[in-house]
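Q: beta-galactosidase, please. Structure only.
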Amino acid sequence: MWPDLVQKSKEGGLDAIETYVFWNGHEPRRREVYHFGGNYDLIRFLKEVHNAGLYAILRIGPYVCAEWNYGGLPVWLRQIPDIELRTDNQPWKDEMQNFTTLIVDMVKEAGLFATQGGPIILAQVHQNLLYSDCASEVERSFFFFFPSFSK
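A: Structure for beta-galactosidase:
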């Protein structure tokens, strides 16, 4: 499926493909089960994009808004004591960092960032922060979290 869609995108004049990473699809049970096969094979998809000579924009999430059920967040997050989703809350930041680190490390290991010769020219952590009531708190927390990935 992907090679055909990627090729049609290229033939249509696109030079980059943007993709989300759906946390609830990749980690349906907290730190027990990870899905990265079939339609969830992120590395294979990114390699298809690269093989077609296109760039990739990787939207890691963890929150992907209305584009996916529950914003892409796994429902098991609600069972974590004292968690406040999408806020400057330590349980939320711990879970978010665990998942984001998993994805970034996987992509780095596959050599898929542009600095490694891969197709990923941009990676985005989170979405629509400016529209959140807690935007300034969350954004501040990301300034401490994200620099470790940007090197």
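A: Brief note, in case it's useful. The mean pLDDT is 86.
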